[in-house]
Amino acid sequence: MNTLDALHSFIVKAKAATYVGDGKKLLSYRPGSIDLQFHDGAFVYMDSYFGGTDFIGQEVVYFEGEPCWAMNYYGYILLPNLIQAAEAGHIIKVSLSALYKEGRFLGGFEYAVDDSIYTDTNEGNVSHFTGKEWITRQGKKGYELIYHGGLIKP
Length: 154
Fold this sequence. Notes:
Radius of gyration: 15 Å
Distance between the termini: 23 Å
Strand order of the largest sheet: 1-2-3-4-5-9-8-7-6
Order of helices and strands: HEEEEEHEEEE
């Protein structure tokens, strides 16, 4: 396994164990933030975000104490009469759990949860990527998240 494959595998495992896996929240690093962390060998994953219905955050992976990868994201409810934050959160967790079981976090993905469709689309790979996820219900987009990230190099 090469270094990028090991990084990719770690990211999938960390994402599955933290937000999606209802991982234990840490004391906030910054006032008002929600912070999650996952360790495996020389890798450490940290996710820190603000908000709920509309939210912004950043994930960072460290290898042997040095930052090596990061992702920024911003998600928001577009139509609060169509979908509430708690419903969106449930759909996202169920959908991403299915994606992570495939051993990936990037690449086109669509998943049905009850009366909603979760869709993720992106370009690039673990080294450099941009993407968007959204939830459609009754033919309307009710939630959207935009993300981007990649390797950090000295």
